[in-house]
Design brief:
The complex is a heterodimer of chains A (103) and B (196). Chain A has 103 residues and is mainly α. In chain A, helix 1 runs antiparallel to helix 2. With 196 residues, chain B is mainly alpha-helical. Chain B has one domain: Four Helix Bundle (Hemerythrin (Met), subunit A) (Up-down Bundle), CATH 1.20.120.80. The chains are: A mainly alpha (103), B mainly alpha (196).
């Protein structure tokens, strides 16, 4: 952290505040979309798309993932792969079984 | 014996040890919450009927909580910026605000839970409420944990600023990464239960 100059940090603060503003606006947009009379799949795609955009903004800027070391990206990539496998196995096991609906 | 790489980066990872540690911890957390979301998808896609969150839950209150958590993210990062800029007084103010915002979130969530219980809505009532209480409950526990760490760094832990300011700044960065992750989880929990 010692390599951060005061000027750099002041610029960074402006970026953080912009991202903060964008995140708040996106909450409002998602809230607005939830009140529109849309088909369920469309509503799900739009609202989860906004959540994903918020997640990208938050991780990239607040968690500094836009300028992180390679090993962090490797760890996260590996996690994403394991996560995808876990979700796939769960859903596949269910559909492969004779279980019926849950209520 | 002194703990190595608390300030300087390890040559092999390029990170100080605590930062590598928190990323590995957050990776395990992603698996935990991933399992919950996986369970949610499974339950929802196979349910005969699934209620819209807004018919059971208090959407305006949850929206307010979302704004509170996002605001706590910016105050958290501003507390780290303050330390980098050697402004200890401002660090105390920003981290104090983060703590208060975290507590506000918990109080609002408490009101929400209390209202549900008053209406006789418990986890056993339906599958929707079971997964809702499980996921928001685990999230609340994470938020309590983060708040405890923040209180420590604001109070007794802040003594380190005088003896080892760089290490203290790194500690706050680690706490910040955890806090942002907990906020991030809420950014998915909120639309999943309240808006869909």
């Amino acid at each position: 952290m010692s390599d951060h100059s005061i000027q750099d940090m002041q610029k960074q603060v402006k970026v953080y505040l912009t991202i903060f503003g964008m995140l708040i606006v996106l909450v409002g947009v998602a809230f607005g979309i939830s009140h529109l009379d849309l088909r369920t799949p469309v509503r799900i795609c739009l609202i989860l798309g906004i959540a994903l955009l918020q997640a990208i903004l938050s991780t990239a800027y607040f968690m500094h993932l836009n300028a992180e070391k390679k090993i962090v990206y490797f760890v996260l990539l590996l996690t994403a792969v394991f996560l995808a496998v876990m979700v796939f196995i769960t859903l596949w096991t269910f559909h492969d079984s004779t279980a019926g609906h849950v209520s | 014996m002194e703990i190595p790489y608390t300030v300087e980066s390890r040559p092999d990872t390029g990170l100080y040890n605590a930062k590598m540690g928190i990323w590995l911890f957050l990776a395990s957390e992603m698996m935990l919450f991933g399992a919950f979301f996986s369970a949610y998808i499974l339950l929802r896609t196979n349910a005969i009927d699934w209620p819209r969150g807004s018919t059971i839950l208090n959407v305006p209150l949850a929206t307010l909580n979302t704004v509170i958590l996002i605001t706590s993210s910016i105050t958290m990062i501003m507390s780290w910026v303050s330390l980098v800029m050697k402004r200890f007084d401002r660090f105390r103010l920003c981290l104090g605000m983060t703590i208060l915002l975290g507590i506000t979130f918990l109080i609002i969530k408490g009101f929400e839970y209390h209202h549900k219980f008053e209406l006789g809505l418990y986890p056993k009532t339906s599958t929707f409420l079971a997964i809702y209480f499980a996921m928001t409950g685990v999230h609340v526990l994470h938020l309590i944990g983060g708040t405890i760490v923040n209180v420590y760094l604001w109070g007794p832990g802040a003594k380190m600023w005088k003896s080892d300011p760089q290490r203290f700044t790194n500690r706050l960065e680690i706490a910040g990464l955890y806090w942002h992750f907990v906020d991030l989880v809420w950014l998915f929990v909120f639309p999943t239960f309240y808006l869909l």
